[in-house]
Amino acid sequence: MVRNALKAAIGCLFVVVLLAETAIAQSTLIEGVPPQAELSERLAVIESLETEPTADQQRDQAALTAALQAYERLQAIEERQQALEQRVSQAPEQLLRLERELNAAQEESLQLSVDNLSDMPLEALEAELADAVIELQQLQSQMAEVNSQLLAAQTLPERAQQAISDALQRAETLRREHDTRAALLADRQLSAREDAQLIQWRLERVLAEQEVSLNQRELSANSRLRELAQQRRDLLALQIDQQEQQLSLLQGVIDRQRRLQSEQAIADAAKNDPLIAEGHPVVLNAQQVNQTLSLELLRATDRANGIVRENIEAQRQLEHVRQLQRSLNEQMEAIRGSQLLSRILREQRQSLPAVVPRRDLQDEIADLRLKQFDLIRQRDQLRQGERLAAQRLEEAGVEVTPGLVDSLTRLYQSRRELVEQLEQAYGSLLSSAIELQLNHQQLLSTTHDLRATIDEQLFWVANSRPLDVNWLRQLPSYLTQEWHEGEWRAVLPTRWRGLSWDMLVGAPLLLLSVVLIALRGRIKKRLALIHSQIGRLKSDTQLHTPKAVLLNALLALPGPLALAGAGVALHTAEGGLALGLAPALLQLSLSWGVIALGRRLLVPDGVAERHFTWAPAYNVRLRRLLIGLGIALVPVVAIAAMSEQMETPLAQRPVAMALFMSGLLAMAWSLTQLILAHVPIFGVRLFRLILGLAMAAVPLVLMGLVAWGYEYTALRLVARFAITLYLLGLWVVVEATVVRSLAVAARRLAYRRALARRRAQVQEGAEG
Q1: Which helix (DSSP H) or strand (DSSP E) does residue 7 occupy?
Q2: Which DSSP category does 189 fall into?
Q3: DSSP H helices in 644-685
Q4: Which secondary structure element, helix H or strand E, spans residue 221, and what is its range?
Q5: pTM
Q6: Degrees (nearest 5) of the Cα angle 195, 198, 201?
Q7: What pLDDT score does 702 carry?
């Protein structure tokens, strides 16, 4: 450790000395470089030559071009430096302003009410709604920009450190090359100021030093600018929430006013038309149709506004995912090999929206198209109102009078206007729905690709420090932290929060477990009957073994089903209890079911002994090894399932680490014993022995990954390895069942052949 500290001190001293030399020599280097205009003139002279340039001229041309590019980059760095200094100088004032705006916004959020909007006319409310939607989109765009700034500030230290290291190394290389060539030119008594190569190296060295200065300034200002960005994010989050509340209030007030206007229009029509007031059935029927269309128009407008809101949210999520996608490659290149990369990737994966395919949008779009066709047909019919009125009166068997025709004509004219408005509303709704479907599909595919990329990167990135001497020194503090703040406290009854009646979703599995327990006696009797028929030619069949395996599975399932029901119930709860314990219970229920089934098949006078003809002593040994494997699986599977939802690395949870490592070691021992007990060492099954021993070595490999800091990789592989073990066990059972079925088929075939030979002999004797 002392050696590492000494190296770090020497490195820092070297950087300080080099920067001091840079500050002293920078003015001298710049003074020794011709102005940019002079370099441009020299380059133009070379490029204007009519003859083919010589090798020296080509070298000077390349050096002058690079020198001019260095000038441009110096100007860009100077502009960045000025912009950074301006942001830093304005940061305190902006922080105070943002705090005032945040306090004002919090006070304003309490003043939002329907009373402020009820007195406004409908046209003004609709304009206010459109402005509110636009403002919400702008706020969400600003939020995406602030999140991008925070993401860049989070990785700035590593990126700046790498950039400073590269720039210092490049500056030192350029200094050595510059001094070597300057000494060579001095020996030849040539001018160093006019040498294009030296000019290029001087400018590039100054450029490297300016980059170091800029990165150092960015590092020093990073905390203040990140605090400013966080304050802006809090303010924008509050403003977005207020804007969404304002949209909801506006939409509610607009819907109420539209409904009141529609009811008022219907009431005015009834007041002005004596036939409606008298309650004529044909006129009332037409009026009810108009009222239905009016309500449908309100629903269509409300749905259109809802889809606009959903579209805004989908666009916000899509922009967020695209932003994460753009920054992913930059982060991986900047902080590759750092533990911060794993943490950032995990945070980004958690921030990804949970998007599911939406079939309802496609169905809604199809329904809207059908409704549009129906509205077009109604609009065409309503063009001739008087003719349609007379037709309806004739169909109803009512005498056609001018008063009735006039009343119906006015109603049909109103209906035509409603149909046209409804057609426009459906057109707008259809356009918004199609846009929402496209945005949702793009969001779904982009999120899926980004999540796959993040998972792939997390798989190959170390997310914790290796288990070295430093880890051993910090072990006591880790133990104390795990005792006081460990995730195991989530299972304590005092931490049970979010429990509700939704947990009854796991009740069907519990009821099924109770039913299987109640039928246990009948299942055993049926199983005993099947066992008694094994070996009898007339009663034994190829289906006896699959039936016996299925009945044993029913006997082994009650416990695992109850545990799975508890896990499903906890999935509906909130907090650490649901996030950590529920997946662990589901994984443990699967492990319990597989181990219990294997042990049921190996009971004395059971399937393995009666059907597979395995030796009783061999079955007893396998049962004992299976219980050992099951016990070893409990901590491994549970900790792996719970760790996926926890941010604390496994290395900082020593008790969980010890249980996990012990389980893996016990799994390796149990698997080795199982494989050596099941597969002979020599013979045609040598390949299976090698494959089995390789599988038994997997837990040791997982232990090595955890020890080297690749916890995420090991924890992800644990679940797949457990599934592989279950499939291998299923393979053994299926193989033995197939062998047993073939043996039964062979015996029955031999029995039929013997009967056929006996009949033939009897027949030949009778004929003789």
Answers
A1: helix 2-31
A2: T
A3: 654-678
A4: helix 196-272
A5: 0.67
A6: 150
A7: 92
Residue 690 DSSP label: H
Dihedral of alpha carbons 497, 501, 503, 507, sign? positive
Rounded mean pLDDT of the chain? Answer: 79
Integer Cα distance of 158 and 647 in angstroms = 21
Residue 430, both tokens: 């259809």
Place of tokens 């057609």: 423
Q: Over the stretch 511-530, which tens digit does the pLDDT of each residue have?
A: 999 999 999 999 999 988 88
pLDDT at 417 (0 to 100): 79
Which tokens in the block code for residue 617? 């002593």
Count each helix (H run) and each strand (E run) in the chain, helices first.
Answer: 25, 0
Tokens 């650490």, residue?
576
How many Å separate Cα 598 from the centre of its chain? 36
> In the block, which residue shows the tokens 């329904």?
367
Asked if residue 253 lies in contact with residue 118, where contact means CB atoms within 8 angstroms, the answer is yes
Cβ proximity of 558 and 600 under 8 Å? no
pLDDT the model gives residue 1: 35
Residue 199 Cα to chain centre, angstroms:
52
Nearest to 376 by CA among 439, 424, 314: 424
Q: How far apart are CA 104 and CA 347, in angstroms?
A: 31
Question: Residue 379, exposed/middle/buried by CB under 10 A (0-12, 13-18, 19+)?
Answer: middle
The single residue listed with the structure tokens 């960045």 is 80
Residues in the chain where the model's pLDDT stays below 50: 1-29, 110, 277, 680-684
**Residue 458: predicted pLDDT:** 81
